[in-house]
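Sample intake sheet
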Amino acid sequence: MIIILFFIIIFHFSCEEKTLEHTTISKVTDTITKKQIYSKRKINGKSKLLKINDKYTKLDTIRFYNSDGSLWYKFTFFYDDSDGKFEYYNPNFKPFAFHPDYFLLVIRIINENDSLYEVEVNESISLIKKVKKNITFYDEITLGELVLSSPSITIDLIKNTIYNDQDLKVKIDKSLLNGVYAYFPLEINGDLLKIKWKKTTLIKKVG
């Protein structure tokens, strides 16, 4: 006699939302880019970035220049990707955030004058090139504005402490954050980022 046992496993997801928590903005990590956001370089007291906006079209070309004015690198987001490769690939181009499939480009501004930005095109070796000003498809933003414009962020809980109050007196027990699948930026006050999160609890029923 053969006995067959049937086990029905039901997974139930319940979402718990928490808010009014605070963490320092200096080490928050963006969900899309997975790059650490920090404020090591500032112009007039604020870290500044260049970000591609929705005015960018297939007629536009992104260009970077050497100190002598010669062209260092150019590319467009509109290219033939039938082979799955970015045809303008440059191994030395590693800016703050870049993804050709998503029209994502964020570059850190190091310095500027009336006509040019000095930007960091490779953050691993601090390679600096120049970008012309007054180009309509660039927006100049701060790190804080970039964080708040992100739909969600991830937070490195090893490097960051999350507090339950703005006075930084009550720390959140990091074990309570197990199962959190998304953090959402709400506002920035100085070096503090106010967040909320959603937590998924997995309930397993066997029977």
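Comment: The mean pLDDT is 74. The longest helix spans residues 143-149.
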